[in-house]
Amino acid sequence: MTPLPRRTAAEQARLDAELTKLAEVHIRFNQVLGLKLVAAKPPALRFDMRPELIGHHLHGRLHGGVISATLDAMGGVALMWALGEKHAEESTAQVMHRYSRLGTIDLRVDYLRPGLGKHFTASAEVVRLGGRVGSTQMRLINDEGTLIATAAAAYVVS
Asked: pTM of the prediction?
């Protein structure tokens, strides 16, 4: 069987731009968190510490919900990029349509250290991308490279 042709460089650039816009703009909660895509392959999200994100007012620590939401968003972003690679013959519109079916099934977060820092960066690895379910492992570090939290998640992808 002959493999399908990969999308053109121009179409890949369109897809990358749409996935970035999705992660930073269209998912409004990501805007509230201040998430910015700082790398595409492999994907990474970054946000700055702000007073609105503090969960422990006496110590100025990042709220656990912010950590959890960021790691969940990171897992979803990583899967979107992986879906784009898995379906490299598809157009931007076709890959973006796949996003409409993506949703979190299960998320487990391990809070390892207090969320202290000037900014934080989340990264993810796609552990498995099947026809219906994708699994990821995520990490959150602060500006000094200290590991703050890890997570594992499963997402429906079809």
From this structure: 0.94
